Amino acid sequence: MNKIKLFLVVLIVSATTFSCKKDDDGAVEPPRDYAVQYATDIAALETYLQTHYVTVDADFNTTFTDTPATTGQPTIWDMPNLTFKSVALHDITYKVYYLKFREGTGDSPTKFDQVLASYKGTLLNGTQFDYSPFPQGFLSLQSVIRGWTEIFPLFKAGNLIDESENNPNPPAFENFGAGVMFLPSGLGYYNSVVSNIPSYSPLVFSFKFYSVKYVDDDKDGVLTKDEVNPSPAPGEDPIEDYDSDGDGTPNYLDIDDDNDGVLTVVEIKINGELPASYDAILDCNGTTTGLKKHLDPSCH
User: Fold this and answer.
1) What percent of the chain clears pLDDT 90, i.e. is strictly above it?
2) CA-CA distance, 125 to 122, in Å (whole number)?
3) What InterPro entries does this protein's entry cite (predicted)?
4) Using one digit for the tens of pLDDT, what is the confidence trace for 19-36?
5) What is the spatial distance between Cα 20 and Cα 232, in angstroms, rounded to a whole number?
6) How far apart (Å, rounded) are the C-alpha atoms in residues 295 and 259?
7) What is the rounded CA–CA span in Å between residue 262 and residue 294?
């Protein structure tokens, strides 16, 4: 079982594991303060970026190497495609550095969707703790570590080259997104010990993003990515905080989005069939230009 799939198991068992971990005085060892640990992590990550360089082959496989002061080799810190995303969590703002070697040409996931990706995970000391060159299935961005949830939506999937059922080789993709994310421990496993990943470890993930599978969390016929507020208020998540009928349940989990007593999956059907896309859902006048039926409580 790889480390990403172990994440949910870790969440379940970590409370038991660490509530039983005691120091020499018999006291329970509490998790470290997030802000204090982040200060340590970001210093270590930025030192790593300033003292290492990366080589990337034609298929976007990566090799990280220490940069001796005498070589003049440009560091990751100096690469023009190094950028970062700010993530507000644990009452602090994380800076998440990432390299974008190629954005990809397909579709992007939301943080609720599933991704097919190969990846390699290493610690800052170079120890490889996970490697999945040929992914066996899709991973839910709702179930993996938070760093993945934040970074994958910044990339796009590729396209499958050979869809033949008789092809004995692993599926091949082209034009896929490829990059590296550098995660502070608060967006990884934090105080949990997972296999050979020590607690409070910053993580480096190289990845290739092959395909996305969009989900419908509430099974109402509308994909979660389409249950989005067109005009979110500042600070609101356009999906997670979108509750169009004000009933306390966000649309992506609400089976009756306008609270009119008629299920969304019933309202959106056209001649008994679900529409081919969100844009094809009709309004009460039978067109696609007005308020869609499942969002209009006056229309059944």
Assistant:
1) 81
2) 8
3) EF_Hand_1_Ca_BS, PPIase_dom_sf
4) 334 345 556 679 999 999
5) 44
6) 9
7) 8
